[in-house]
Every structure is written in structure tokens, then in C-alpha cells.
Write a structure and sequence with these properties.
The protein is α+β, with helices and mostly antiparallel strands and 286 residues long. The chain folds into two domains: 4-115 and 131-169, Uridine Diphospho-n-acetylenolpyruvylglucosamine Reductase, domain 3 (2-Layer Sandwich), CATH 3.30.465; 178-285, CO dehydrogenase flavoprotein, C-terminal domain (Enolase-like, domain 1, 2-Layer Sandwich). Helices cover 28% and strands 24% of the residues. It contains nine helices and 14 strands. The protein is globular and about 60 Å long.
Length: 286
């Protein structure tokens, strides 16, 4: 059997990670463990577990000078209960769609990110929010754009001695206008389901109602969630008005690479992604 450590302070956790790396047995970091243990159901492992759920100060979602801070211990329920601006409406929609109430109360936003599943509901939202990932170790602290942090299926740039302490999200400047966000997910049923395709979108408009910033991200249609840069450029300068979905063309989704599996074919995923993108844009300007 492996070891189990539940530190009460961040410094203790970082020291444990460094010691594990030196011993050749870096511990597995868990918080809610809603992804980790179901994946190992029925298998006995001797892994070293570092449970960070007891670390003080890693739970509260709050505004800081650097931006909105979502720490590593913040659950999906914490995100739903926090008083957040409209920028987070899409992200909160994802929080309602993640598992059931039990998972939302236990599973963490950062854990969903670090698990790095192509179908992770949180990652398209973090992409659309231009989130920064903060990593800490005994060597220091660094921040990475979320789009660079996730490198593939279950793969990130986190080093074995590093802990993701949270994500930082800056609110765009609306210049007297407004910010809106949306999240749409397609699965085989409404709840408790892995996504077939999903879309997160953020629109920033000026005082005259024209789009000054657009961010559209698609998940479950590539090894990693993708921003649709060509579509975003197409949307900037357009009126944020009904009919915006007509700007979407199939070539805007060229960077996606969906697969066929038991949930859907690649063609179905691509078609669904295009429809969801259109619906999300119309929802944002309705």
C-alpha cells in the first residue's frame, strides 16, 4: 500500500512534492478525487497520495488585484455560490452540468483542469476567459496561459514537484459596453454525461453595441480544447445583434480534430460543434 498525506499548509505540500521527486516516487495530487479514484475502480495501487483538501486558504473564490482567483480547493459548488460578474455566466453553466450534486460539492475546478480530459467541461470556459494557471514549487511560482498548460489528452506542463495553486481570470475592459458569456454542452442525456461536444463563448461589446473582443472555444472535438481564432477575428467589429450566427462558416472549425468513439462519430461531433457555436452566439446577443 502507498502512503497518504493531508497537509494543512501549502509549504508542507510543496516540500512533500519535492521529497517525492527526490525519492523517485512523486505523489499523486488529489483534492476532490472525483476523477482519480473512479478511473482506478477495482485496481489496487501503491501510489503515494497527497491530498490538498486540508490546506488553509485554497478554497475561496475571490477578486484580487491580479484578477478573479479560483484556488485549487474551490469546488464547482463554490463557483456557483460565489458572487461573480456576467463574465462568469458560462463558467457557472458548466458548473451546473458537471456530474451530480455530489460531484459538484466535492470535485474541484482546478482538478478538472489538471485531469486534462479532452471532454473536461471546465477547460473551454477557462480558454474563453483567458485564464492563467499558477504553479508553485519549492523553486518558486510561475504562471502559464491555460491554452499552453494543457498539452494533450491527460497531459499538462505541470512538473512532478509542482502544485497548481489556482487560476487567475482578468475581466476584460468593456469601454462602457457589456460583457456576456455562455456555455453549451451536448451529451447523450441532460446530466451525468460525458460531453460529445461543447462550446464556451465570451463577447465584449462597446457602448455602441459593437463587438470589441470575441472568444470562442470548443471542447471534446480535439485532443485539447481549441479556441476558434479565425471566427473570433471575424466577429470583432460586427454589431452584437440577432443574426450573428450567420458569420459562422465551416472553415472556422478547421483546427478541430474530432474522433469517432462509442459516443459519436467524428462527423457528428463536427456538425454538433458548428451548431453549438451558432447557438451560443445567438444566445449571447438575444
Amino acid at each position: 500500500m502507498g502512503g497518504y498525506l493531508r497537509p494543512g499548509a501549502l509549504a508542507e505540500a510543496l516540500e512533500a512534492l519535492a521529497a517525492g521527486l527526490a525519492d523517485g516516487r512523486p505523489p499523486v495530487v488529489v483534492a476532490g478525487a472525483t476523477d482519480h479514484y473512479p478511473a482506478r475502480l477495482g485496481r489496487v495501487t501503491d501510489e503515494e497520495i497527497l491530498d490538498i483538501s486540508g490546506i488553509a486558504g485554497l478554497r475561496q473564490v475571490q477578486a484580487t488585484e491580479a484578477g478573479w482567483w479560483i484556488p485549487a480547493g474551490a469546488t464547482w459548488a463554490d463557483l456557483l455560490e460565489a458572487r461573480l460578474p456576467p463574465l462568469f455566466d458560462g463558467f457557472r453553466g458548466a458548473a451546473r452540468a458537471v456530474g451530480g450534486v455530489g460531484v459538484q460539492n466535492r470535485g474541484t475546478v482546478v482538478g478538472n483542469l489538471c485531469n486534462a480530459s479532452p471532454a473536461a467541461d471546465g477547460i473551454p470556459n477557462l480558454l474563453a476567459l483567458d485564464a492563467l494557471v499558477e504553479l508553485a514549487s519549492v523553486r518558486g511560482v510561475r504562471r502559464l496561459p491555460v491554452g499552453g498548460f494543457v498539452t494533450g489528452n491527460r497531459s499538462t506542463l505541470r512538473e512532478p514537484d509542482e502544485l497548481v495553486t489556482g487560476v487567475v481570470i482578468q475581466e476584460p475592459v468593456a469601454s462602457g459596453g457589456a460583457i456576456s458569456s455562455a456555455f453549451l454542452k451536448l451529451g447523450s442525456r441532460a446530466y451525468l454525461v460525458i460531453s460529445i461536444a461543447m462550446v464556451a463563448a465570451v463577447l465584449v461589446r462597446d457602448a455602441g453595441g459593437r463587438i470589441v473582443d470575441a472568444r470562442v472555444a470548443v471542447g471534446a472535438c480535439s485532443p485539447v480544447a481549441r479556441r476558434l481564432a479565425a471566427l473570433e477575428a471575424e466577429l470583432v467589429g460586427r454589431p452584437a445583434a440577432p443574426g450573428l450566427a450567420a458569420a459562422v462558416r465551416l472553415e472556422h472549425l478547421d483546427q478541430l480534430a474530432p474522433i469517432s468513439d462509442v459516443r459519436a462519430t467524428a462527423l457528428y461531433r463536427m456538425t454538433a460543434a458548428e451548431i453549438l457555436v451558432r447557438r451560443a452566439l445567438e444566445e449571447l446577443v438575444a
